[in-house]
Amino acid sequence: MAHFKTPGLLPLSRPAVFPSKLTSRSPVPCRQYNFHRSKYNRFHEARDLWRTSQQFRVGVSFVSGCIVLWIGSNIEKAPVTGRWRFMCVSEEYEAELGRKSYQHVMRDYQNRILRPDDPRHKMVGRVLERLLPNSGLKGDVEYHVIDDNELNAFVIPG
User: Which end of the chain, N or C, is less surrounded by CB atoms within 10 Å?
Assistant: First the structure.
């Protein structure tokens, strides 16, 4: 079968593809139809939007400024370690969460909490006496020991 190479015409062995249906993944090269496109222009419209729309620039700047102010207003210095940290929870809310968590733990483990005269409870108390002076915590610390085979320790804020 003979193929004729006529400028602007497709070879006879390929299916006819019209220019309006061509995509970048089309089997027919786009250069036959003289399309002048850059190789990569995915964000071309966004670039034009930033250059041409003052309202878009003001909106993006405003949102960015609000985020920076929110983060900056929620940074504080930790009293124990002296490091800076991001805290978007107030002390009152943290204390309320601590009270609710304490009530939940006491309700769930009420039958397995050891009495203060138990030797395991006293051992935990001796360990806490050595840890507390170096922890930076002030005030009285209340602790409970739960009779469980799992080794675990946790602190509830508040």
Answer: N
